[in-house]
Amino acid sequence: MRSIYYLAGACAVMAVACMGKGDEPEEPGEPAPEEMGFVTVQWAIEDETSAERCRAYGASAVELLLISTDDNKVTKQVVPCERFDTSVHVMADDYVGTITLVDEDGKSVSEPLPVGPFEVSGEEQTTRRVSFPAAGAAGDRQGERTQGERDGRERRRDTHRN
């Protein structure tokens, strides 16, 4: 009869020990789940999500940089261009960031586009969307502006000579 009491006591002790496991404090340095959140960044090229658009840029991946505005901590993620979205688990905070198309060597093949500002909370997921211009369009527009500025300066010089 005593062995039944010992067995019941041992089971009770183990049950209490197992139940109490969830009440243990978090490991030092590890944030509580409510202090973490997800941000999903979706990108397109000319508002399209086709692998041909990535190839037109010479892009094999995108480099996403998220910067916490509180402590300036940088989170970097590089994912294949053809995925056209990624989710990042970060501390709940306010963020800014950039996304850039990169080639196989990690060299940028596009101008960085802004991602944010935005807020990440532990209660809901944040989604940001960006669209890159057509391959070559950003550089062409810059060249036109630069040429236009040169033409404008030349005209101004001519009017001052008279």
What is the fold's blueprint, element by element?
Blueprint: H1 2-19, E1 36-45, H2 51-57, E2 61-68, E3 74-80, E4 85-91, E5 93-102, E6 113-114, E7 118-120, E8 126-132, H3 137-161
Walk me through the structure:
By secondary structure, this protein is an alpha+beta fold. Helices cover 31% and strands 33% of the residues. The longest helix is centred in the C-terminal third of the chain and has 25 residues, at 137-161.
Write a brief structural summary.
This protein has 162 residues and is an alpha+beta fold. 31% of the residues lie in helices and 33% in strands.
Q: Helical proportion? A: 25-40%
Contiguous low-pLDDT stretches (5 residues minimum) are 1-26, 139-162
The helix-and-strand class reads: alpha+beta
Radius of gyration: 27 Å
Number of separate helices: 3
- Helix and strand succession? HEHEEEEEEEH
Short descriptors:
five-stranded antiparallel beta sheet; 162 residues; 31% helix; single chain; disordered N terminus; alpha+beta; three-stranded mixed beta sheet; elongated; 8 strands
